[in-house]
Amino acid sequence: MENITKHPILEIPDKKNIEFKFHGKPLYGFEGMVISSALFLNKIKIFGHHVKDDSPQGLFCANGQCSQCNVIANGVPVKACMTPLTEGMMIERCNGLPELPSEDVRVEVRDINIINTDVLVIGGGPAGLSATKVLGESNIDVILVDDKSKLGGKLVLQTHKFFGSQKDVYAGTRGIEIGKILGDVVSNLKSVKIWVNSIAIAIFSDGLVGIIKDMDKYVLINPKYLLIAAGAREKMLVFPGNTLPGVYGAGAFQTLVNRDLIKAAENVFIIGGGNVGLIAGYHAIQAGINVVGLVEALSQCGGYKVHEDKLRRLGVPIYTNHTVISANGQDKLESITIGKLTDSWDIEPGSEKTFACDTLLIAVGLDPVDEFYHKAQQFNINVWIAGDAQEIAEASAAMFTGKIEALKILKEIGVPNSENLEELEDLANLMKAKPPDPVQTEVIGKEEGIFPLFHCNQEIPCNPCTSVCPQEQIKTVDDLITQLPYFIDDQDCIGCGKCVAVCPGLAITLIDYRKDKESPVVTFPLELTSEKFEVGRTVMVVSNDRNLGEFEVTRARFLKEFPKTQLVSVKLPSEIAKTAVGIKLMQSGYTEAMNLYQQPYTDDDIIVCRCERVSVGEIRKWIRNGVHDFNELKALTKTGMGACGGKTCTSLINRIFREEGITQENIIPGTKRPLFVEVPMGVFAGIKTKKGGK
Ligand code: SF4
Ligand code: SF4
Ligand code: FES
Ligand code: FES
């Protein structure tokens, strides 16, 4: 079994073993797990084979969106990533098309309950929770629906501390804890009903919303107001080998590792240097997984510099101006080939490098899950939208937009509130803003006393370091949250270490010249182990770009308020004390390129619609033949007609149109499906779904 037994941040709960059979072989998973996680736990990554070309199928989104993870459980096809594992479950790969059940018994048709509520909130992530909090605190009847077993949405995956401000978005607190805090608050609000494990499947023209409650019972909700906070889905990317098992979204990886505590990989490679890719890399290292490298097509990573620095200082090679050429392997991923991009975005001949890895994380952005919103608008329903469904941004921005949209609903209902909407919208926009280029900061000349050093040189919306200092000695320029922090130095720093421990970017060190000016003591934050370091042990001290050498630990401590961040103090020669930014624990391995012959690929080898196995070549051929209508493309190739309903391939096909010089206004969009997820027909007649999907 490949479960995580030690983690620097996450608690490892005792969970009951659940026995199941995979093709007749007895295996174990843990209580509360979904099937896909139980299979990964047992190193099974191939969940089936496609009917069209027998290609191996596996996990991609782990979020119910892509429909790639079908298996047969107790004789019924189900999405492995959304279906809870149960005792004695019989699981098989879904090879080809699943057989239809031989239903020759008369089914019992039931009435469907209609439930009235003031507000229906779809999505229990940061935006949905913040909105529900505001509405519930005003005593408004709310039903909050979420398709997972636990509230929190993407917060449940985020073991890192948050940026933003402490006052508004719990900055300095970890995402997992924020999810719990908000979840507890809304669970205690009298006017709020929480339906987890419940999926919104359709919005109807009469204003009713169809929900499968508890994964089992179909009900209709008649809300006066609807708030969509359904989050986002991960974008796919087209390259040869993109559908091999082992190639999946960074969010799926975080689900396996941080939610379900599975050591899902040995060696991962990451595509995309935005915050999602950078953070996934750091989460991998925290789980003891080697990060072989990260490619970013642009000349610099788009994520926060402090996240990038965390990876660089742990020795992860970041290949900017590079892209993935292919994912290689027979039945599963075995290696990845990358190449350097020229100014005209071609691969520079001879720059190809191949690295062995078992997992490739795609972190090239997210698409909003906004179908519900558009459908509701089409039917003139009173609808609002918040969080990633409204605009892709950090979870802290989603908390703001959830609150803002809830306040707008309150206004519409006629409930007074004293919040300044304009101010909140300005703050939300600050949180959504793309990070600017880092700036050059001056190294402080002072070499006496004790003070914090800020290795934080990008103007991102963040300021928890200014809130924790008991001496009130840390400020940002002009007190603006987007400006850089500095030490005021008109009162003594008492060396409490709170600023070091609170910083989500791990970008503050404390430097103490009081005992020895030649060898000051430098204190670093460490989040790579929960074991307290012994005084006298040696550790590798690093700057942002190199190892500085091994030094002895002089002190190690955890502060009560920040129990997962160890403060490790080391005596360093003064010439390196100010460039030292952290401590490295594990050696990265397998970063050497392999000697592998790179076979040439054509567009016909690259899959764009993974549900129907349609290649880029096929789509391009029809576009070049003058087809600009998605519905026609569907009829000709079946693209977009697969189980995911085009959620995964539509944006990729739009990109092929653009590559072929067809502008957006000249593309006729496809007809959207009335249902958002696949459901058995009997659901609408009130036939019980028999947990697990029938
Ligand atoms: S170590 Fe404590 S007293 Fe010193 S600057 Fe940081 S928070 Fe303030
Ligand atoms: S130094 Fe301050 S402003 Fe910069 S990342 Fe850390 S907490 Fe945020
Ligand atoms: S992996 Fe299960 S639906 Fe995407
Ligand atoms: S990828 Fe699902 S329909 Fe195209």
Topology, element by element:
Layout: E1 17-22, E2 25-30, H1 35-41, E3 48-49, E4 56-57, E5 70-73, E6 76-79, E7 89-95, E8 114-122, H2 126-137, E9 142-145, H3 166-169, H4 175-187, E10 192-195, E11 199-203, E12 209-213, E13 217-228, E14 232-234, E15 247-249, H5 250-259, E16 267-271, H6 275-286, E17 290-296, H7 305-313, E18 318-320, E19 322-328, E20 335-340, E21 353-356, E22 359-362, E23 366-368, H8 371-378, E24 383-385, H9 395-413, H10 421-432, E25 450-454, H11 464-468, E26 474-476, E27 485-487, H12 498-502, E28 508-512, E29 521-526, E30 538-542, E31 547-559, E32 562-571, H13 574-577, E33 582-584, E34 607-609, E35 614-615, H14 616-624, H15 630-637, H16 650-659
Parallel strand pairs: 1-7, 3-7, 8-9, 8-13, 9-10, 13-24, 15-22, 16-17, 16-22, 17-18
Antiparallel strand pairs: 1-2, 3-4, 5-6, 5-7, 11-12, 12-13, 14-23, 19-20, 20-21, 25-28, 26-27, 28-29, 29-32, 30-31, 30-33, 31-32, 34-35
Bound molecules: iron/sulfur cluster (2 copies) and FE2/S2 (inorganic) cluster (FES) (2 copies).
